[in-house]
Amino acid sequence: MRKSTLFGAVLAAMTLSLSAAAVQDQAIPDDDLGLSKASVYDTPEPAVFEYGNKDAGTVGKRVVRSYNTAPPMIPHTTQDMVPITRDFNLCKDCHSQPDMIGKKITTGVPVPAPASHYVDVKKGELYMGRWTCTQCHRPQADVKLLVESVFDKKVVTRKK
Length: 160
Ligand code: HEC
Ligand code: HEC
Prior knowledge:
Layout: H1 3-25, H2 90-95, E1 118-120, E2 125-126, H3 153-156
Antiparallel strand pairs: 1-2
The structure holds heme C (2 copies).
């Protein structure tokens, strides 16, 4: 390496470490880190909340989806239906209704799980990768938002 190149490299390294030190000096207050309004050293206790307790079939209203193809939220209670195990799945009993796909759903009638949820829609055979419904579908609770979302569904919504 020529002397001048070596000098240039040393100078560049010095400038880099100097600017890194300058960035380090700009300390961020610990309650400004992340989305939480409190210090990262606090252990906040979230307010106690309860999920909606209306029985399946009595709600009638479906929750607006956050975006097209989002798994819909469960509008009714899941009490006594969870946890779903290998031998216990009440969700399936009401929602595994391939014959109802595409038909008009009236109040109180379970919305049929869509075609993607079966290995074979004609046979009504549920795809086991969908067995644990609560992995994707969750009940809702009426709580105050911890952080306001600026999510814009138009950005991710594709036309089918
Ligand atoms: C007794 C029958 C029954 C059982 C059991 C049941 N559901 Fe439902 N479900 C319904 C009915 C009926 C609706 C329509 C809303 C209403 O009237 O409650 C519904 C609505 C839903 C929806 C909303 C669909 C949409 O397009 O908005 C989801 C998701 C859902 N249920 C998931 C589940 C899951 C997961 C379980 C198991 C933890 C479950 N359900 C158990 C009857 C049932
Ligand atoms: C791996 C994630 C996943 C699992 C597990 C899953 N679902 Fe879904 N489900 C979805 C998604 C995503 C949609 C929305 C599909 C779409 O709009 O194309 C959906 C849609 C639905 C709908 C609404 C259909 C409609 O026409 O509005 C019902 C009802 C439903 N699922 C029930 C169930 C039940 C019951 C189970 C368990 C047996 C289950 N799902 C398991 C992801 C899942």
